[in-house]
Amino acid sequence: MQKSWRRCFSSLAHLSLVALPLACQQKEVPREFRLEVPEVILSPDPITVTARVTHADGTVGTGEDEYDFVVTPPALAKVSKRGALVCQSSGDGSVSLKLGENTRQAALRCRLVERVDASDVGRVELMQGAFKPKVRVLGKGGAELDGVEVTLSSKNPGVLLAKGSELLPKSVGNATILARAGQATQEFKVDVVRKLTPEALPMQQNRKINFSLEQGKYELRVVLPAAKSLSAEWRGAPYCDYSGVNKEHVSTCVLRTKGGVVFDNPAYLISGSTEVSVEGVSIYEVP
The pTM is what? Predict the structure, then answer.
């Protein structure tokens, strides 16, 4: 320690004694450096801005001095001289630092997540393959935040398997999914259904259509261009029979044994045609 002070004193002999302590404590200016911050910041918890420096001798390390970081725009975040950064609002900007002649900056993406909204997911079809559900990430005042990754986990992986931000249908059933973004979480339910394409068998001189079905729970849906009276008879389950006047008809039934459903031919209802038509008709196996 005494030798280093003597060397310092010798090299700075032309300086006054008042300037000597400041000159001897001058910080090293690194040959090169870069700033490192998380790609996206999702909460108001402090994160660390790291200065990765290359010293004059070529060695690389982490800067441990106090630095004058600058955030642009200033209202986006606050940062201390030790690199503790706190996002104050959601938005994009940068954090920069000048050391010697070099100025470096890093992109700053603040996304302060307040809640996750998964109310629009609804049902999914078994054979559609992996998909990303309609999950919205919301910030202050309900503003939707972009660029925020949502991670999913499933309580019923045998029905709906979660893989990162995607879901993969595995079987017909009900599944409860947990969505997480930052510190916000939201549970939501998804019904996995299977669309069927049974042969349309004409009955009663083509005025009705029959679908033969195995044991299970089914939903028949018929959508017409105008409100019409439609009836559906469930074979083997008369307690499920349906009739109504509407543009969209939905009838659900649990078949305890092999059976089927007989319903009015949409073409006959619309125009009196006896052409067998399944236009606007869908049938699903449902949970």
Answer: 0.76
Q: 108 to each of 47, 79, 233, 256, how far by Cα in Å?
A: 11, 12, 62, 60
Burial 20-53 (b: 16+ CB within 10 A, else e): eeeeeeeeeebbebebebeebbbbeeebebebeb
Whether the CB-CB separation of 42 and 54 falls below 8 Å is answered with: no
Beta strand pairing status for 166-169 and 173-181?
unpaired
Distance between CA atoms of residues 178 and 43, nearest Å: 19
Contact of 148 with 181, CB cutoff 8 Å: yes
Amino acid at 44: P
Class of residue 160 by CB neighbours under 10 A (exposed 0-12, middle 13-18, buried 19+): buried
Q: What angle do CA 168, 176, 119 make, to 5 degrees?
A: 90
Give, rounded to a whole angstrom, the gap between the first and last alpha carbons of the chain.
79
Torsion 232-270-200-130 (CA) sign: negative
Pairing of strands 123-125, 115-117: unpaired
Number of residues assigned to the chain: 287
Distance CA 177, CA 191 (A): 11
pLDDT of the chain along its 287 residues, tens only?
333 333 333 444 444 444 444 444 456 788 899 999 999 999 999 999 999 999 888 899 998 899 999 999 999 999 999 999 999 999 999 999 999 999 999 999 999 999 999 887 889 999 999 999 999 999 999 999 999 999 999 999 999 999 989 999 999 999 999 999 999 999 999 999 999 999 999 999 999 999 999 999 999 999 999 999 999 999 999 999 999 999 999 999 999 999 999 999 999 999 999 999 999 999 999 99
